[in-house]
Specification:
alpha+beta; globular; Fructose-1,6-Bisphosphatase, Chain A, domain 1; 7 helices; eight-stranded mixed β-sheet; D-Maltodextrin-Binding Protein, domain 2
Length: 266
Protein backbone atom coordinates (compact mmCIF):
# COMPACT_ATOMS: atom_id res chain seq x y z
CA UNK A 1 0.00 0.00 0.00
CA UNK A 2 1.42 3.38 -0.97
CA UNK A 3 0.55 6.95 -0.18
CA UNK A 4 -1.25 7.55 -3.48
CA UNK A 5 -3.97 5.19 -2.17
CA UNK A 6 -4.89 7.97 0.30
CA UNK A 7 -5.60 11.00 -1.91
CA UNK A 8 -5.33 14.34 -0.18
CA UNK A 9 -3.19 12.99 2.64
CA UNK A 10 -0.12 15.19 2.12
CA UNK A 11 -2.17 18.40 2.16
CA UNK A 12 -3.97 17.31 5.32
CA UNK A 13 -0.64 16.40 6.92
CA UNK A 14 0.76 19.86 6.16
CA UNK A 15 -2.38 21.50 7.54
CA UNK A 16 -2.21 19.45 10.74
CA UNK A 17 1.39 20.52 11.34
CA UNK A 18 0.57 24.18 10.79
CA UNK A 19 -2.57 24.11 12.93
CA UNK A 20 -0.75 22.31 15.76
CA UNK A 21 1.80 25.12 15.95
CA UNK A 22 -0.94 27.74 15.76
CA UNK A 23 -2.88 26.01 18.54
CA UNK A 24 0.30 25.65 20.56
CA UNK A 25 0.87 29.40 20.48
CA UNK A 26 -2.61 30.05 21.88
CA UNK A 27 -2.22 27.40 24.57
CA UNK A 28 1.25 28.59 25.55
CA UNK A 29 -0.08 32.12 26.06
CA UNK A 30 -2.66 30.73 28.48
CA UNK A 31 -0.04 28.53 30.15
CA UNK A 32 2.15 31.53 30.95
CA UNK A 33 -0.74 32.93 32.99
CA UNK A 34 -2.16 29.62 34.22
CA UNK A 35 -2.67 31.04 37.72
CA UNK A 36 -5.57 33.10 36.36
CA UNK A 37 -7.30 30.30 34.45
CA UNK A 38 -10.84 29.28 35.37
CA UNK A 39 -10.59 25.51 35.90
CA UNK A 40 -13.54 23.12 36.11
CA UNK A 41 -13.65 19.44 37.04
CA UNK A 42 -15.30 16.80 34.86
CA UNK A 43 -16.21 13.34 36.14
CA UNK A 44 -13.79 13.38 39.07
CA UNK A 45 -11.55 15.95 40.85
CA UNK A 46 -8.46 14.81 38.89
CA UNK A 47 -10.17 15.28 35.50
CA UNK A 48 -10.05 18.99 34.76
CA UNK A 49 -10.76 21.35 31.87
CA UNK A 50 -9.98 25.02 31.37
CA UNK A 51 -11.06 27.81 29.06
CA UNK A 52 -7.79 27.21 27.24
CA UNK A 53 -8.86 23.66 26.24
CA UNK A 54 -12.14 24.94 24.84
CA UNK A 55 -10.69 27.89 22.95
CA UNK A 56 -7.92 25.79 21.41
CA UNK A 57 -10.33 23.06 20.29
CA UNK A 58 -12.72 25.63 18.82
CA UNK A 59 -9.86 27.12 16.79
CA UNK A 60 -8.61 23.73 15.57
CA UNK A 61 -12.11 22.65 14.55
CA UNK A 62 -12.68 25.90 12.66
CA UNK A 63 -9.41 25.58 10.71
CA UNK A 64 -10.00 21.93 9.82
CA UNK A 65 -13.64 22.45 8.91
CA UNK A 66 -12.80 25.44 6.72
CA UNK A 67 -10.23 23.43 4.75
CA UNK A 68 -12.10 20.09 4.67
CA UNK A 69 -15.81 20.60 5.37
CA UNK A 70 -16.73 16.97 4.60
CA UNK A 71 -14.20 15.47 7.03
CA UNK A 72 -15.43 14.25 10.41
CA UNK A 73 -13.99 15.68 13.62
CA UNK A 74 -13.79 14.09 17.08
CA UNK A 75 -12.48 16.30 19.88
CA UNK A 76 -12.27 15.82 23.63
CA UNK A 77 -14.30 18.90 24.54
CA UNK A 78 -17.00 19.01 21.84
CA UNK A 79 -17.48 15.41 20.75
CA UNK A 80 -17.96 13.85 17.33
CA UNK A 81 -19.14 15.53 14.13
CA UNK A 82 -19.49 12.88 11.46
CA UNK A 83 -18.24 13.48 7.94
CA UNK A 84 -18.67 11.90 4.53
CA UNK A 85 -15.12 11.95 3.09
CA UNK A 86 -13.77 8.84 4.84
CA UNK A 87 -11.46 11.03 6.94
CA UNK A 88 -12.03 11.77 10.62
CA UNK A 89 -9.80 14.16 12.58
CA UNK A 90 -9.21 13.11 16.19
CA UNK A 91 -7.96 15.97 18.35
CA UNK A 92 -7.04 16.73 21.92
CA UNK A 93 -6.61 20.49 22.26
CA UNK A 94 -4.46 20.17 25.38
CA UNK A 95 -3.49 16.67 26.47
CA UNK A 96 -2.12 16.92 29.98
CA UNK A 97 -4.55 19.53 31.29
CA UNK A 98 -3.63 18.69 34.88
CA UNK A 99 0.08 19.48 34.35
CA UNK A 100 -1.00 22.51 32.27
CA UNK A 101 -3.14 24.12 34.96
CA UNK A 102 -0.55 23.34 37.63
CA UNK A 103 2.31 25.01 35.79
CA UNK A 104 4.17 21.91 34.58
CA UNK A 105 5.43 21.65 30.97
CA UNK A 106 4.24 18.07 30.26
CA UNK A 107 1.33 18.89 27.95
CA UNK A 108 0.81 18.96 24.21
CA UNK A 109 -1.49 19.57 21.27
CA UNK A 110 -2.51 16.29 19.61
CA UNK A 111 -3.97 16.14 16.09
CA UNK A 112 -4.58 12.72 14.57
CA UNK A 113 -6.37 11.68 11.41
CA UNK A 114 -8.18 8.44 10.59
CA UNK A 115 -8.85 7.27 7.05
CA UNK A 116 -11.26 4.35 6.92
CA UNK A 117 -10.40 3.63 10.57
CA UNK A 118 -6.60 3.62 10.08
CA UNK A 119 -4.43 6.31 11.73
CA UNK A 120 -2.82 8.11 8.78
CA UNK A 121 -1.63 11.40 10.31
CA UNK A 122 -0.15 12.08 13.72
CA UNK A 123 1.03 15.51 14.82
CA UNK A 124 1.92 16.24 18.45
CA UNK A 125 3.29 19.63 19.42
CA UNK A 126 4.82 20.27 22.84
CA UNK A 127 4.99 24.09 23.04
CA UNK A 128 7.03 24.31 26.26
CA UNK A 129 9.80 22.29 24.59
CA UNK A 130 9.19 23.64 21.06
CA UNK A 131 9.04 20.05 19.80
CA UNK A 132 6.89 19.08 16.82
CA UNK A 133 6.42 15.35 16.30
CA UNK A 134 4.93 14.71 12.86
CA UNK A 135 4.17 11.55 10.92
CA UNK A 136 1.91 10.35 8.12
CA UNK A 137 1.08 7.01 6.54
CA UNK A 138 4.15 5.61 4.76
CA UNK A 139 5.91 9.00 5.00
CA UNK A 140 7.85 8.27 8.18
CA UNK A 141 7.94 10.26 11.41
CA UNK A 142 10.06 13.24 12.41
CA UNK A 143 10.88 15.36 15.45
CA UNK A 144 11.51 18.96 14.41
CA UNK A 145 12.33 17.65 10.93
CA UNK A 146 14.73 14.89 12.04
CA UNK A 147 13.74 11.35 11.03
CA UNK A 148 12.71 9.01 13.85
CA UNK A 149 13.77 5.36 13.57
CA UNK A 150 13.39 3.04 16.55
CA UNK A 151 16.28 0.90 17.82
CA UNK A 152 15.25 -2.78 18.20
CA UNK A 153 17.99 -3.33 20.81
CA UNK A 154 16.07 -1.28 23.37
CA UNK A 155 13.86 -3.37 25.67
CA UNK A 156 11.86 -2.86 28.85
CA UNK A 157 14.98 -3.94 30.79
CA UNK A 158 17.47 -1.44 29.34
CA UNK A 159 15.05 1.44 28.72
CA UNK A 160 12.07 3.12 30.41
CA UNK A 161 8.36 2.42 29.84
CA UNK A 162 5.58 4.99 30.18
CA UNK A 163 2.34 4.10 31.96
CA UNK A 164 -0.93 5.93 32.42
CA UNK A 165 -3.71 5.67 34.96
CA UNK A 166 -7.04 7.32 35.68
CA UNK A 167 -10.24 6.77 37.65
CA UNK A 168 -11.67 4.48 34.96
CA UNK A 169 -9.48 1.65 36.33
CA UNK A 170 -9.06 0.44 39.89
CA UNK A 171 -5.97 1.09 42.01
CA UNK A 172 -5.39 -2.66 42.06
CA UNK A 173 -5.15 -2.80 38.26
CA UNK A 174 -2.60 0.02 38.21
CA UNK A 175 -0.62 -1.61 41.04
CA UNK A 176 -0.52 -4.89 39.08
CA UNK A 177 0.85 -3.11 35.99
CA UNK A 178 3.62 -1.57 38.07
CA UNK A 179 4.35 -4.88 39.80
CA UNK A 180 4.49 -6.82 36.52
CA UNK A 181 6.72 -4.23 34.86
CA UNK A 182 9.16 -4.09 37.78
CA UNK A 183 9.15 -7.89 38.12
CA UNK A 184 10.17 -8.16 34.46
CA UNK A 185 13.19 -5.96 35.14
CA UNK A 186 11.70 -2.75 33.79
CA UNK A 187 11.00 0.68 35.18
CA UNK A 188 8.43 3.36 34.41
CA UNK A 189 7.50 7.02 34.31
CA UNK A 190 4.19 8.85 34.17
CA UNK A 191 4.23 12.51 33.17
CA UNK A 192 0.52 13.32 32.99
CA UNK A 193 0.14 13.34 29.20
CA UNK A 194 -0.49 10.06 27.42
CA UNK A 195 -0.20 11.67 23.99
CA UNK A 196 3.20 13.12 24.84
CA UNK A 197 4.43 9.79 26.20
CA UNK A 198 3.35 8.11 22.94
CA UNK A 199 5.37 10.74 21.07
CA UNK A 200 8.29 9.83 23.32
CA UNK A 201 7.90 6.19 22.27
CA UNK A 202 8.14 7.26 18.63
CA UNK A 203 11.25 9.29 19.48
CA UNK A 204 12.90 6.38 21.29
CA UNK A 205 12.86 8.17 24.64
CA UNK A 206 10.47 5.58 26.04
CA UNK A 207 10.49 1.96 24.91
CA UNK A 208 6.74 1.63 25.24
CA UNK A 209 3.53 2.99 26.72
CA UNK A 210 0.56 1.28 28.35
CA UNK A 211 -2.66 2.72 29.71
CA UNK A 212 -5.58 0.35 30.42
CA UNK A 213 -8.31 2.89 29.57
CA UNK A 214 -7.73 5.79 27.19
CA UNK A 215 -9.73 7.73 24.60
CA UNK A 216 -9.08 8.04 20.87
CA UNK A 217 -8.19 11.73 21.11
CA UNK A 218 -5.32 10.81 23.43
CA UNK A 219 -3.76 8.12 21.23
CA UNK A 220 -4.57 8.26 17.50
CA UNK A 221 -1.86 10.82 16.65
CA UNK A 222 0.67 9.00 18.81
CA UNK A 223 -0.20 5.65 17.28
CA UNK A 224 0.55 6.98 13.79
CA UNK A 225 3.88 8.39 14.98
CA UNK A 226 4.93 5.13 16.64
CA UNK A 227 4.02 3.06 13.58
CA UNK A 228 5.87 5.39 11.22
CA UNK A 229 8.97 5.28 13.43
CA UNK A 230 9.00 1.48 13.16
CA UNK A 231 7.04 0.52 16.26
CA UNK A 232 3.82 -1.37 16.99
CA UNK A 233 0.47 -0.46 18.52
CA UNK A 234 -2.58 -2.33 19.75
CA UNK A 235 -5.47 -1.29 17.47
CA UNK A 236 -8.02 1.15 18.85
CA UNK A 237 -11.67 0.32 18.06
CA UNK A 238 -12.81 3.03 15.64
CA UNK A 239 -16.05 1.65 14.20
CA UNK A 240 -19.21 3.64 14.89
CA UNK A 241 -19.80 4.73 18.47
CA UNK A 242 -16.81 2.75 19.71
CA UNK A 243 -14.60 5.60 18.50
CA UNK A 244 -15.96 7.78 21.31
CA UNK A 245 -15.44 5.17 24.04
CA UNK A 246 -12.31 4.24 25.98
CA UNK A 247 -10.05 1.28 25.24
CA UNK A 248 -6.68 -0.15 26.33
CA UNK A 249 -3.79 1.64 24.65
CA UNK A 250 -0.45 -0.09 24.12
CA UNK A 251 2.44 1.02 21.91
CA UNK A 252 5.96 -0.34 21.81
CA UNK A 253 9.36 -0.24 20.19
CA UNK A 254 10.22 -3.53 18.45
CA UNK A 255 12.26 -4.88 21.38
CA UNK A 256 9.47 -4.32 23.90
CA UNK A 257 6.42 -5.61 22.03
CA UNK A 258 6.25 -9.13 23.51
CA UNK A 259 6.82 -8.01 27.11
CA UNK A 260 4.29 -5.17 26.95
CA UNK A 261 1.66 -7.34 25.25
CA UNK A 262 2.06 -9.87 28.04
CA UNK A 263 1.80 -7.22 30.76
CA UNK A 264 -1.23 -5.62 29.08
CA UNK A 265 -2.86 -8.95 28.20
CA UNK A 266 -3.44 -8.02 24.54
Amino acid sequence: MTTHVVPGLEARFALASAVAREAGAIALDYFKRHETLVVETKRDPQDVVSIADREVETMIRARLHEAYPTDGILGEEYGLERGTSGFTWVIDPIDGTSPFVNGMPNWCISIGLLHNSTPVVGVIFAPCHDELYAGAFEMGATLNGKNLVLDPARTIVNAVTGIGANSHVTPAVVAKIVEDLLSAGGNFIRNGSGALMLAYVAAGRLVGYYEPYMHAWDCIAGYCLVKEAGGWFHPFPTEGERLTKGSPVVAASPGAIDDLRRIAGV
